[in-house]
Amino acid sequence: MANTSPNATTLNSLPPEVLEKICRELLALPLEREERKHIGCRTVAVLARTSRLLQEPALNTLWHTIPSLAVLFFTVPTAVYKRTQDKRSVRRSYVAATSAYGTLAKALKIQVLFPNIEAIHFISNDITPMRAFRAFHVLFGPKLQKLDIYSFDDPPPTVFVPPMAQADQEAFASMVHKLQEISPGLQELALSLRPGGSIIASAVSAVVPDLKHLVCLRLADGTAPISPATFAHLARLPNLEILAFSTDDSPWADTPKTLSAPGNAGETLFPALHRLHITAPTLALPIQLLRLVGSPHIESLAIDALKVVPRSQIRPLFRAIGSMPARGNIQELEIQVREVIAHGAAPGAPWDETPPPRPIGQPTLSPLLALPHLVDLMLNICCPFDVDDTLLGTFATTWPHMDRLILGTSRTWGMISTRDFPYDAGDVDDDGTPDAKEDELAADIARGHAVADATLGPPHEPLDSAPSRSPRATLFGLRALAARNPDLDVLGLELTTNVSAGLELPRERAPARRALDTLSVGLSPIEDPFAVAAFLSHSFVEIARVESSWEEEMEGDEEDELEEDLFVEREGWSDARLFRRRWLAVEMLVPMFEEIRRQERRWKRKAAGLDRDEKDAHEGGDSEDVLMEDDDI
């Protein structure tokens, strides 16, 4: 007889309660990464499948803590469901234990099967049959606090998809109706499932008013647009902190008036709200709804308009935001507008026949200056922007801790001629450029042209005529903004790239240089990538990425072979192709100039008797280098 190891003997002698405790401990393993949160469940499922001793304790543990029906699937030997070359026949004993639990579920009938489940995270995909949701409620229990159903296969909001089939909608709606009956204490509900449909929307609107303890409600666009009655219920929940919903303009005509009626004057709506995300066809309804939100605690606000928005709605939106009770607390603001049309323009008219809308400048942006604690401002609005260095200086003073600032570069309007550009009434012209340190900058520009002369032929020729209106913000204004905002990490801004005027300014100490992760320039024209790269490397310790939107303006049949030398330009290329390649060249040149600059500083320190350990100077000396100017050596 084979000898039995002492460890195996000890394990076999343990009572079932201890074995079940071991399985529970496996489920409670600390996991740092969110995507690994079910690793423990999979481990216990494998034990149920491979260990006779631990099969029953493992299944009992899963029975009480199962996060998804999929885990039970892994308790079945693969031979049951997987075709292999193995000729072994499937035996009934393989699934006996799992089948026993199925029999138990039938016997229990209306009793709660999983009374201890507190959170359900379900990821749906295109192979998940919607009819499965008819039985999904078997996972619900009296302790359920969080239900999150998410789909990775949802099309983007801008892509039209037909509504879900009626039978599929009814299956999902039946699950939603069970929530209030089985889990009335639900605190968090997140549904992201496109396309939805009217049946699902009606079910959600009917059930949400019965959930009195909601703290978080997230309804992705297209899943279930909420009704005015649901909105009115949510407005009076005392503990609601997070709200993300989509809606339609049509049934909301009288709701804002009703909630703001004199009889409700003493009532604070949404008193505990911290995060708010509204998705609507245009900005008209969000403007009205924001005026109803009374919470002073809002930290994050997002507005998403899916259809064509008249230019006349943008400034009222900013005014509504700047007048909110939470204006002194808002830290994140994101506005998404996919298309803006000028006053009187017809929606759907050809782009080349549509006049550009009035640009977004200082008068339109000024209400946002009432938000002093902004650290993240993303205005992804498909409309021209008109920003100058003076306005950038105002931003720097008002928002000294800004981390990300995006002004229209993610959704550019397109090229606009100077003749057709209507200024935002009240904007002021530039009154000068910030200080710059010129010798080093001029040397880098000269060095770049010298390289071009030696290797690539003549330097870049300036354009005969500007293809579009040139932005008024300058590289000098960008540098001053970054110097006064030490936390700035991402900047999206269209600007002019002419640095020649700054080279003639008196020599004065430049502000300390900062690191910048991403610079997005939209449709900024550029003539000389060497000059721009030299300026950026002089102004910033490091720039990881330089992005432009010129590729979107290239002709449909225009291919750009990037394996060609970026500094080669050919006759007949479009301006969009030229500008795109020049910005790509800037991204390549900036780290080269920076490395040259580091080496020059090492030489200067050495000549001045300030030499340090080479490794220390390279790895730890940059923070001191940026504060040391040539006059100090």
Please render the helix and strand layout as text.
Layout: H1 6-13, H2 16-27, H3 39-50, H4 52-65, H5 69-73, H6 96-108, E1 119-124, E2 146-151, H7 166-182, E3 188-191, H8 198-207, E4 216-219, H9 228-235, E5 242-246, H10 255-259, E6 275-280, H11 284-290, E7 300-310, H12 314-322, E8 332-341, H13 362-365, E9 376-381, H14 389-398, E10 404-407, H15 438-455, H16 475-484, E11 490-492, E12 514-520, H17 529-539, E13 540-547, H18 575-607, H19 614-619, H20 622-625
Parallel strand pairs: 1-2, 2-3, 3-4, 4-5, 5-6, 6-7, 7-8, 8-9, 9-10, 10-11, 11-12, 12-13
Helix pairs in contact: 2-4, 3-4, 7-8, 11-12, 14-16, 15-17, 17-18
Q: What is this entry, summarized?
A:
Residues 622-633 have a biased composition (Acidic residues). Helices cover 34% and strands 13% of the residues.
List keywords for this structure.
Leucine-rich repeat, LRR (right-handed beta-alpha superhelix), 20 helices, globular, alpha/beta
> What is the CATH superfamily label of the largest domain?
Ribonuclease Inhibitor
- Sheet with the most strands, sense and barrel status: 13 strands, parallel
Q: According to CATH, what is the class of the largest domain?
A: Alpha Beta
**Count of discrete structural domains:** 3
**Net shape:** globular
Beta strands, count: 13
Number of helices: 20
Round the mean pLDDT to the nearest integer and report it: 78
CATH fold group of the largest domain: Leucine-rich repeat, LRR (right-handed beta-alpha superhelix)
Distance N to C terminus: 86 Å
Which blocks of ≥5 consecutive residues have pLDDT under 50? 426-467, 503-510, 614-633
Task: Indicate the structural class.
Answer: alpha/beta
Alpha carbon gyration radius: 31 Å
Oligomer: single chain
CATH architecture of the largest domain: Alpha-Beta Horseshoe
**Strand order within the widest beta sheet:** 1-2-3-4-5-6-7-8-9-10-11-12-13
Share of β-strand residues: 5-15%
Helix content: 25-40%
